[in-house]
Design goal:
The complex is a heterodimer of chains A (320) and B (181). Chain A is of the alpha+beta class and 320 residues long. Helix content of chain A is 62%, strand content 12%. Chain A has 3 domains: 12-129; 133-228, Beta-Lactamase, CATH 3.30.450.20; 232-319, no CATH class. Chain A has helices at 12-35, 47-79, 84-131, 151-157, 161-164, 169-172, 230-248, 251-270, 275-306, 312-319; strands at residues 135-140, 146-149, 193-198, 204-216, 219-228. The longest helix of chain A is centred in the middle third of the chain and has 48 residues, at 84-131. The two termini of chain A are 76 Å apart. Helices cover 43% and strands 20% of the residues of chain B. Chain B is built from 7 helices and 7 strands; from the N terminus they run βαβαβαβαβααβαβ. Chain B has a 7-stranded parallel beta sheet, sandwiched between helices. The longest helix of chain B is centred in the last third of the chain and has 18 residues, at 127-144. Chain B is globular, with a radius of gyration of 15 Å. Chain B starts with 7 loop residues before the first strand and ends in a 7-residue tail after the last strand. The chains are: A alpha+beta (320), B alpha/beta (181). The interface between A and B is medium-sized, with 29 and 32 residues.
């Protein structure tokens, strides 16, 4: 059975007012009961203000319990000064009142400290969630629906968290087919895998993706994190284009010069071509080699400046 | 060439039979009796003229735009009735002007432009500049309703450049590598 619990307590003046009313009530009921020679039931009413004071005001609450106990003891002594049994029972109650006040104050201080730690932790993790330079998307492992997305994920995909929440992960931002979810369906582990993220405008954003499996509130979830590698990809593509261009202007021309020299050798052997023409053709090959050398120097400079590895696909092409 | 007249063709030849294939193409084109404007970047005009004459080509109907001789020998050759010299193979503007003026010269005659070769041009010009130049030449040919042949060594061009050149051309012709078989 659930009870409605207020998440917010009233402000300090209201608390003080409540305590003042309860104190007056307790004092009144004490005097009233003693005047009617009743000495047992009314003492239970002391617990309420003592517990509230200790819970609300910690150490000051204990001071309040001591003061209220002193009042109680004073009133008891006034009404029964010679009855040592009554006085002894009253002293025992006073000890109980102060003891309860101390216990509640300690518990209250412990709860406050825990709440502070939780709040601090939440602030810290919210700060990370909102400011980390990686998109994070929380996916329900069972239904494959998106539970939450951080602002960077919103920026990467172009969808707001509200738009993403509740939608199937595959249909919205992941190009993988449904039923082929790598980490669960295919039993794969994803750690910094290079893949594509679908953006709202239909563009594919190259990302480094990591998926971890965890349980939140008894529910299995996947935490997907994405790092945008568009600038790296752009630089890589630029380098590929550059190397492709240089390959065109080094490897292929070398083959051309080789074939030309082969033809010149045949022409010289066959003595069919005038020597002046041979000289000109050889001079052209020399100039062509100059051009190739210049292109090679450009490639060296490009490699020195970029310092990036030649991708495998291009390496294969260059081996052709 | 007959049916291919007024079309732009990208001709790809194996490197080992490149010279023979060029010769066959020139002979084939001459069956239609057009004027051939040959842009030479790989071999000098004088050498080609001598080679074609020795191999039975009617060189009276060939006009050379030679972009390599001056650059190679360092001295300025004077242009003749059958040959126009351009100072450098990477001076694509001058080659373009030479092509335009030569086309005007043969305005009323059946003409075919022959570019020898795309590979040789790549030694001296970037692929972007070369594509712009080829696009310029092809646009001019299409406006003037003239045929053109872009000659290249097969496997000498990378797939991306080849696909770009193929989009400019109406047809791509590949010569078989007979010596390899």
């Amino acid at each position: 059975m659930d009870f409605p619990v207020s998440k917010k307590w009233p402000s300090t003046p209201v608390k003080l007012a409540v305590l003042a009313i309860l104190t007056l009530f307790v004092a009144f009921i004490t005097v009233f009961s003693l005047m009617n020679t009743t000495q047992t039931v009314f003492t239970h009413f002391y617990y309420v203000p003592i517990i509230l004071a200790a819970y609300w005001f910690d150490r000051n609450g204990v001071v309040y319990a001591i003061l209220l106990s002193a009042i109680y003891l004073g009133v008891m002594y006034t009404f029964s000064p010679a009855d040592m049994v009554v006085i002894a029972a009253a002293v025992a109650r006073v000890i109980l009142f102060i003891g309860i006040g101390c216990v509640i104050a300690i518990l209250s201080m412990t709860i406050s400290r825990e709440q502070e730690l939780v709040a601090e932790s939440e602030t810290r993790f919210r700060g990370i969630w909102e400011n980390i330079h990686a998109g994070i998307i929380l996916v329900d492992a069972e239904t494959r629906t998106i539970i939450a997305a951080n602002p960077e994920a919103e920026k990467l995909t172009g969808f707001s968290q509200k738009e993403m929440a509740g939608h199937l992960y595959h249909t919205l931002i992941c190009p993988a087919e449904q039923g082929k979810y790598p980490i669960s369906d295919l039993g794969m582990r994803i750690d910094c895998a290079e893949c594509m993220l679908l953006a709202r405008d239909g563009k594919k954003v190259p990302v480094l993706k990591t998926v971890t499996d965890m349980t939140i509130g008894g529910k299995r979830c996947f935490i997907e994190s994405y790092i945008d590698i568009t600038p790296i990809k752009d630089a890589e593509n630029t380098l590929i284009a550059y190397i492709r261009e240089i390959t065109l202007r080094i490897r292929n021309p070398v083959e051309l010069v080789r074939d030309n020299l082969h033809e010149i050798r045949d022409d010289i052997a066959g003595q069919t071509v005038q020597p002046a023409h041979i000289v000109t053709v050889l001079a052209i090959q020399e100039k062509d080699m100059d051009g190739i050398l210049k292109n090679l120097q450009e490639l060296e400079r490009a490699i020195a400046e970029k310092k990036m590895e030649i991708p495998d696909a291009l390496r294969e092409y260059m081996k052709r | 060439m007959g049916e291919n007249y007024k079309r732009i063709i990208l001709a790809l030849s194996p490197s080992r039979s490149y010279r023979e294939n060029t010769l066959q193409m020139i002979k084939g084109i001459q069956k239609g009796n057009p004027h051939i404007i040959l842009i030479c970047v790989n071999k000098p005009a004088a050498f080609l003229l001598d080679f074609y004459q020795r191999n039975g080509v009617d060189t009276r109907r060939i006009f050379f735009i030679d972009a390599i001789t001056q650059y190679a020998i360092g001295s300025a050759e004077k242009s003749t009735d059958t040959c126009k010299f351009v100072s450098k193979p990477n001076d694509l503007t001058s080659i373009g002007i030479a092509v335009t003026t030569t086309l005007k010269k043969f305005e009323k005659e059946k003409t075919v432009i022959f570019l020898d070769s795309v590979n040789a041009m790549l030694i001296h010009s970037s692929s972007a500049d070369l594509l712009k130049f080829i696009h310029f030449i092809i646009s001019k040919l299409r406006i003037m309703n003239i045929a053109g042949i872009l000659l290249a060594v097969e496997k000498g061009l990378d797939p991306i450049l080849l696909s770009q050149l193929s989009t400019f051309a109406d047809e791509t012709v590949e010569f078989p590598d007979e010596k390899a078989t």
